[in-house]
Design goal:
Strand order of the largest sheet: 3-2-1-4-6-7-9
Largest sheet: 7 strands, parallel
Strand content: 5-15%
Distance between the termini: 39 Å
Number of strands: 9
Shape: globular
Number of helices: 10
Helix content: 40-55%
Radius of gyration: 20 Å
Length: 337
């Protein structure tokens, strides 16, 4: 696809009211795409539409709860009516619940799975028949580093992300004979978004992303590039690739080290009230409507980047040492699935 081929294409983005979704809407608007933006917060979504129109793009807000299959079907229908077709569908809406597995209410676990896994399934189910009729289209699933590396104290979030990876792999296998339809996955490392304010927190401590955190615009640029040149898997942020590799080589040791880091963090973190965030109700957290969450994106070298490098080096060294002990001196333990 040419560099300018995005102009005039119809792009659907879920979770477009803040964070990666909002950055992605603005990035596609600059490319001249025709945008259909979905999120639960209608008032915030209207602001994003206005920003996109200011950049010269046509945009439509469709307030949508992606945990409602019928609502997602209506989103697809309105998008097709608005654009005449759908060229790119980006599943992005998501959230999480942090806390010990048995201390997080079942209702919160269920909502995470509905939002992160079923919401993406509903999106794929709504748009793939249209892609088949028009004989082409690109489905992009914004997943997470958590789709490759199981993060402690985020059981339902990790389950949803591993499930999304399986969903995409299955769809790619099913669409082998339809090369004009592409299913692409994006796995960002920690990103500076309001997502940490929106998610449920049952730890009693302030939860912040581990340094380095990357700009949402970096993810948005990756999504635009996929619309131009689709490919199966894209990692965003060098730590995503590093941690994926560590887990592939030494899964037992990586899990142990991540658990130790997280427990150490919880001991030192500032107290914070237990909160469901906006997981169960979008208006429960009125703030957090921007692209960035204020965590200090580290796209450029700086203190955060040095701290991140030190963390990665410490993780690698700890994983290697622990793997040797667990395997009786061999370099790495055998993977356990």
């Amino acid at each position: 696809m040419s560099k300018h081929s995005i102009a005039g294409q119809t792009v659907v983005i879920t979770g477009a009211s803040s964070g990666i979704g909002r950055a992605t809407a603005l990035a596609f608007a600059r490319c001249g795409a025709r945008l259909v933006l979905a999120a639960r917060r209608a008032n915030v979504l209207a602001e994003v539409v206005a920003e996109c129109e200011h950049l010269g793009a046509r945009a439509l807000a469709v307030p949508t709860d992606t945990t409602d299959a019928q609502a997602v079907e209506r989103l697809a229908q309105q998008a097709e009516t608005f654009g005449g077709r759908i060229d790119v569908w980006i599943n992005n809406a998501g959230s999480g619940a942090v806390g010990a597995f048995d201390e997080v209410p079942v209702a919160a676990h269920e909502q995470v799975l509905r939002l992160n896994l079923l919401g993406y399934l509903y999106g794929a189910h709504a748009v793939l028949p249209l892609f088949k009729r028009q004989q082409g289209g690109i489905l992009i699933n914004v997943i997470s580093l958590g789709g490759w590396v199981p993060m402690p104290f985020t059981a339902s979030y990790t389950a949803s992300k591993f499930g999304l990876r399986g969903l995409s792999e299955s769809l790619r296998a099913e669409l082998t004979d339809t090369p004009s339809i592409r299913v692409c996955d994006v796995y960002p490392a920690f990103v500076d978004t309001p997502g940490f304010q929106h998610g449920a927190n049952y730890t009693g401590k302030l939860i912040k992303p581990a340094s380095p955190v990357f700009s949402p615009y970096k993810v948005a640029d990756a999504l635009v590039e996929l619309a131009r040149h689709p490919r199966n898997t894209t990692m965003v942020g060098w730590t995503a690739t590093a941690m994926r590799t560590a887990y592939a080589l030494a899964p037992n040791a990586t899990r142990s080290v991540l658990a130790r880091f997280f427990r150490l963090y919880l001991k030192q973190a500032k107290p914070a009230p237990v909160s469901t965030g906006s997981l169960l109700a979008p208006t429960a957290v009125p703030h957090g409507t921007d692209v960035e969450g204020g965590w200090g994106s580290s796209g450029k070298p700086g203190v955060a980047a040095w701290l991140g490098t030190a963390f990665a080096a410490g993780l690698a060294a700890s994983v290697y040492a622990l793997a040797r002990r667990q395997s009786g001196g061999a370099a790495f333990s055998k993977p356990v699935h």
